[in-house]
Amino acid sequence: MQLEKHQLDRHNDKLFNGHQRKLSFVQEFTPECEAIIKKLMAFQIGIPSWALGNGGTRFGRFSGAGEPRNLEEKIEDVGLLHALNRSSGAISLHIPWDSVADPSNIRNLATQYGLRFDAMNSNTFQDQKGQEQSYKFGSLQHTDKAVRKQAIEHNIEVIRQGVALGSEALTIWLADGSCFPGQLNFRNAFQRTLESLKEIYAALPAHWKVFIEYKAFEPNFYSTTVGDWGQSLLFANKLGPKAFTLVDLGHHLPNANIEQIVSLLLMEEKLGGFHFNDSKYGDDDLTAGSIKPYQLFLIFNELVEGMDARGMDHASDLGWMIDASHNIKDPLEDLMQSVEAIMIAYAQALSVDRKALQLAQQENDVVRAQEILQQAFRTDLRPLVAEARFRAGGALEPLSLFRDLELRKELIKERGRETVSTGL
Ligand code: PSV
Ligand code: MN
């Protein structure tokens, strides 16, 4: 389904005057508005192919309707999102859920929607039908060389498919670890994983990156072989300049200071990418900014500060992706909310008075430092985000337009009620 230009125009015309009034108010008090709008327009967030359908928990799944039935329809969904918000110009694929038989067709389709392919994701956390070796006791860490070989070959196949689509990165998330004390020799598991990763690393094309994603627990509950940013950084450092750490916001133990992690990884030139989501307890995969919006802002504050310190391009030097699972919301609506929350946090971080903050830090003026951060966080910059979207050809209020046009109903008409999208 394609959004028609006249539908967008009618929506924007109706909201234009109100938007202008809110925008002028923000412009009056935010001197660097134009620079912020330009940065927002350039900033794109990759949408995970596995988040376009309703997920579930181990207790059940309440399926949505009109879910994409294949990769073509997933691309169509992301195309729709991007047409609405102009900030979702990339899709991240998970193999084998999204295995591509004809990459050139898929690539053309994505181009038609103005999308590129973000990092490719491999899957050695599930056994696939007909697979020779089982990942029950791990994949790249496995004690049996034949299992490791199968997992390495799978990752190399994912790179091959990614190359055909024009992707430039591979994300490896391993469920490897152990459930019980004594099950695993930690050092040996680490070394075996490193040897396996080295083989995958050697297969990376020259301009490719590999992101090593860490996660504290789940599905293993006693130890995880890439369990935190320290372990991920160890692997990335040992592998070489094309290897980086990927931070998924839901993969930390409670109250971890993620903004500090991000700052140090950037300093070490080892932060590669992000999986945005939010959580209350564990890897809840909730809408970004729905639980801890201040934390999201603080993370962006460190990102902007750290990237600027190194002269990095905000839009292209890191991989920005969402990783979410929608148990009760419409996935497209949820993704729109996540993108909006990310853009707001980014805009607020861009508006921080850096010079004043540095001075306050230098002088140990703790009160002033907090005032500066909270001034940015408590200023409503939504009109700037809307203006960036509008200038880029999107909708002033994507979610309202999605609802006004009853786009989910249209998708159900096309695809049916009983559709199940691949993914978790
Ligand atoms: C694991 O929890 C994870 O965050 C990894 O990124 C996976 O690829 C993704 O979720 C989907 O299972
Ligand atoms: Mn993730």
From TrEMBL:
Pfam assignment, any one: AP_endonuc_2
Species lineage: Bacteria, Pseudomonadati, Bacteroidota, Sphingobacteriia, Sphingobacteriales
PANTHER family registered for this protein in UniProt: L-RHAMNOSE ISOMERASE
InterPro entries: L-rhamnose_isomerase, Xyl_isomerase-like_sf, Xyl_isomerase-like_TIM-brl
SUPFAM superfamilies, A to Z: Xylose isomerase-like
Keyword list, A-Z: Isomerase, Manganese, Metal-binding
Name assigned to this protein: L-rhamnose isomerase/sugar isomerase
GO MF annotation: an example: metal ion binding
Domain of life: Bacteria
Organism: Pedobacter nutrimenti
Statement: the UniProt record of this protein carries the keyword Manganese: yes
Gene3D superfamilies per record: Divalent-metal-dependent TIM barrel enzymes
Signal peptide: none
Occurrences of domain Xylose isomerase-like TIM barrel (ranges): 104-284
